[in-house]
Design brief:
Distance between the termini: 37 Å
Number of strands: 9
Shape: globular
Oligomer: single chain
Number of helices: 18
CATH topology of the largest domain: TIM Barrel
Helix content: 40-55%
């Protein structure tokens, strides 16, 4: 076992930091090991539709943005999942995060697969492209170019094994329009076109779980009327495009924001979530449109007592990110010199993001995510005892979340509805790479 663990550790490091040939070979080896061991990239689409039909009890799938110390964080996720027999869990990365964390999709899939293998977790591996988001400014300047960039990323993600993709065209909602259909029109038309694009390119025997969004996170709270306007327009547009499976879930806005609201001392303000709206939206999404339910974004910085509310509201998925980054960057085991170096880098390299009126604590909290890519190897090179201490605290956090969100014991239901087939490659495949894009999205 120790020999196998050392082999996986060496392979995953090569998959991240090796030469291009070494990366390709290591990623291929990890993929093949995962396929044989039963750790296979999969779509959660069928499980969500079963949830929408009421065939499985209410649970809220945690979709976790793994930004920093990714192998150790992934291992902590899969230790907690294995201990709790949890199958409905998602590891994800947003369009913006791919750029500033320096994790292209092929690398991300390799690292998450290796983390699962290292901890002896088996079962469907749900990897998600979070916030595959249209940049509204770029779209206004050149719609074709912005959509081309988005499609290039989608192709890269599909090629790598991302079989869950959250299309986010909610940035194109125009609340100045006279009625709900007109407000949502560009949103639902582009979402349908991107759904078609995904369906035309998804692997055989895979129905990618596609998500859409009706209200930009941090903006106006969503309501059922907006859901109706979006879904009726989306379904109408998709039907016009051909015979395609639609979305499995819908992201809504209920009062949260990505990363939380940072107070002058660097702490996070309390947020009032409209749980009644979330419940009404989830019920309508299931009963009227056959979806798994509504999705809650921007939630990792909520107080601990909030998380049990989401299964009660029957939210199908919740997106969690910033708090995991905070646990790593503020961990007492992290060397002070490294923390100081990160903070100095942020003050020097991200100074343009320092908003007037923000304290230094507010600025560093909001901008230090930009240091993750430049400091990636330094975090990977931390002593084993430091990484183990951080990993142990991450595992406690994941365990708590999985219990509160009621995904404990969901392995059986996951295996009943999700049966990924063996996909073996005879040799390493060239990675598809699109230009990095630092569009602001992700918690």
């Amino acid at each position: 076992m120790l020999k196998e663990s050392a082999k996986i550790d060496a392979l995953v490091r090569q998959a991240v930091f090796g030469s291009e040939d070494e990366k390709a070979h290591a990623r291929w080896m990890i993929w093949e090991m995962g396929q044989q061991a039963g750790v296979r990239p999969a779509s959660i689409h069928d499980l969500y539709l079963a949830r929408g039909r009421g065939e499985v009890p209410p649970f809220t799938t945690p979709a976790m943005n793994v930004r920093i110390l990714s192998y150790d964080a992934g291992r902590a996720i899969f230790r907690a999942a294995k201990q709790l027999d949890a199958g409905a869990i998602i590891c994800e990365i947003a369009r913006s995060e791919i750029a500033y964390t320096d994790q292209r999709p092929a690398e991300y899939v390799a690292v998450m697969t290796a983390a699962a293998l290292r901890e002896g977790f088996t079962g469907p591996l749900f990897i998600q492209g979070d916030h595959v988001q249209v940049n509204a400014k770029k779209y206004a300047a050149d719609p074709a170019a912005e959509l081309k960039a988005l499609k290039a990323l989608i192709e890269e993600e599909l090629h790598a094994g991302f079989y869950n993709i959250d299309v986010d065209t909610s940035t194109l909602v125009d609340l100045s329009k006279p009625n709900l259909d007109e407000q949502q029109r560009t949103n639902y038309e582009r979402a349908a076109e991107l759904t078609q694009f995904i369906r035309d390119r998804e692997p055989d025997d895979v129905t990618v779980s596609v998500g859409a969004e009706i209200g930009e996170v941090g903006g106006k709270n969503s309501d059922v009327h907006e859901l109706d306007a979006f879904m009726e327009g989306y379904n109408r547009t998709l039907k016009r495009l051909g015979t395609y499976a639609g979305i499995s879930k819908i992201s809504v806005q209920t009062g949260t924001s990505h990363g939380g609201v940072v107070l002058p001392d660097g702490s996070i303000a309390k947020v009032q979530i409209d749980l009644d709206a979330l419940k009404a939206l989830s019920q309508a999404a299931r009963k009227k449109y056959g979806l798994g339910g509504a999705v809650q974004h921007g939630a990792s910085t909520l107080p601990p007592e909030a998380f049990s509310k989401f299964p009660e509201c029957e939210a199908v998925e919740i997106h969690l990110a910033t708090n995991f980054q905070t646990i790593v960057m503020d961990h007492p085991a992290l060397p002070r010199d490294l923390r100081r170096e990160v903070n100095e880098w942020v003050k020097r390299e991200a100074k343009d993001e320092w908003k007037k009126g923000d304290t230094e604590e507010q600025f560093i909290y909001k901008s230090r995510k930009k240091a993750i890519g430049p400091f990636k190897q330094k975090f990977w090179d931390l002593p084993e005892r430091v990484r183990a201490a951080i990993g142990a605290d991450l595992e406690k956090t994941f365990t708590f979340l999985f219990e509160q969100l009621r995904v404990t014991g969901t392995r059986a239901a996951t295996d009943r509805y999700v049966k990924p087939k063996l996909v073996s490659h005879a040799a390493p495949r060239a990675a598809l790479v699109s230009a990095p894009d630092d569009a602001e999205a992700g918690e």
